[in-house]
Amino acid sequence: QVQLVESGGGLVQPGGSLRLSCAASGSVFRINVMGWYRQAPGKQRELVAAIGSGGRTNYAGSVQGRFTISRDNAKNALYLQMNSLKPEDTAVYYCNADDRYDSVYVRGRYWGQGTQVTVSS
Fold it and tell me: How big is the CA angle at 91 (ends 27 and 7), to the nearest 5 degrees?
């Protein structure tokens, strides 16, 4: 299986920036699509951004132009650079991955524990 561990969350002011990281490990040989999802209290978990092994991306409209997803395949690492943060970005951010599919329109089967991002003045 794949284990995913997020880091980099915290408290930032509106307009600030934050960089999230996700480290993947486990017994699987290959990790294909990876992504970031977020969940605010009382709401459904939603896509933030996803990236395929070849670099294809899919961003939620609400973050497009502000967030950048990237990955390092050699390190099995995933990153999310978040700029111009807004209070509505406040949520638990989860790393997501799959070892079978490589579509940025499909949620992977593996999830991290999540890291809290709070945007508040």
Answer: 40
Average pLDDT of the segment spanning 69-79: 94
Q: Which of 117, 114, 51, 107 is nearest to 82 (CA)?
A: 117
Residue whose C-alpha is closest to residue 69's, from 90, 97, 30: 97
The predicted structure's pLDDT at residue 26: 87
d(CA 115, CA 39): 10
Reported as a single tens digit per residue, the pLDDT across 18-59 is 999 999 998 777 899 999 999 999 999 999 999 999 999 999
| E strand map for the chain | 2-7, 10-12, 18-26, 34-39, 46-51, 57-59, 67-72, 77-82, 91-97, 110-111, 115-119
